[in-house]
Design brief:
about 80 residues; mainly alpha; 2 domains; two-stranded parallel ribbon; 3 helices; 2 strands; about 55% helix
C-alpha cells in the first residue's frame, strides 16, 4: 500500500481473504479516529461493527503500538539471523 487512498480496496480484499481462507466472518474492526477507516457502507455490506478508540486515551493506543514494535523487532532479528542485507 503506497497511499491512504488505497485503504478501502485493501481492507475489502483482506475481509474477503479471511472469509475465503479461514471460513470466518470478521465481526468487529477497531481503529483510531482517522478518516482512512471511515467506510461505514463497506462495513454495513459485510455486517461488521466499526469501533473507534476513545479520543485522548493513549492507554488504548499503546497496546497496538507495543504489538507493532514487537513485530518489527522479530522481523529485524529474523533478517539479521538470515544474513540478508
Amino acid at each position: 500500500m503506497r497511499n491512504k487512498s488505497e485503504t478501502k480496496s485493501v481492507l475489502s480484499n483482506f475481509i474477503n481473504l479471511i472469509h475465503n481462507q479461514f471460513g470466518i466472518k470478521i465481526k468487529i474492526i477497531r481503529s483510531g479516529n482517522g478518516n482512512e477507516f471511515a467506510y461505514h457502507d463497506l462495513y454495513n455490506s459485510f455486517g461488521i461493527i466499526h469501533q473507534t478508540s476513545c479520543i485522548e486515551t493513549p492507554q488504548q493506543n499503546s497496546i497496538g503500538e507495543r504489538k507493532h514494535q514487537h513485530i518489527l523487532n522479530v522481523t529485524r532479528s529474523l533478517i539479521f539471523q538470515s544474513k540478508i542485507p
